[in-house]
Design goal:
With 84 residues, the protein is α/β, with parallel strands linked by helices. The protein has one domain. It contains two helices and four strands, in the order H-E-E-E-H-E. The strands form two sheets. A two-stranded parallel sheet has the order 1-4. Strands 2-3 form a two-stranded parallel ribbon. The chain is flat, with a radius of gyration of 14 Å.
């Protein structure tokens, strides 16, 4: 059912984009946050193994994660990460 709707199309595009990044010599990182919500950061966030139905992350936590990566304070396990 997911494959037939808009979510399925988005995941197909995501797979294509990840394949392009994986084949590129350019150092890059694609961050895929789980469901975004507003608010001040509550805790430090990082990579998760899977998207859960009720998974959320604050926009400010995503921003802090990206700043940590740029500053060298965060570790990156892969060229694309599911963040939660």
């Amino acid at each position: 059912m997911i494959g037939l709707g808009n979510v399925g199309v988005a995941y197909q595009d995501l797979e294509k984009a990840e394949a392009i990044l994986d084949g590129s010599p350019v150092r890059s990182l694609a961050v895929r946050p789980v469901t975004l919500v507003s608010g001040s950061p509550k805790r430090k966030r990082g990579p998760v193994d899977q998207y859960r139905m009720l998974s959320t992350i604050r926009r400010s936590e995503v921003a802090q994660f990206l700043l940590d990566v740029v500053d060298g304070n965060g570790s990156i396990p892969d060229r694309h990460v599911l963040l939660g």
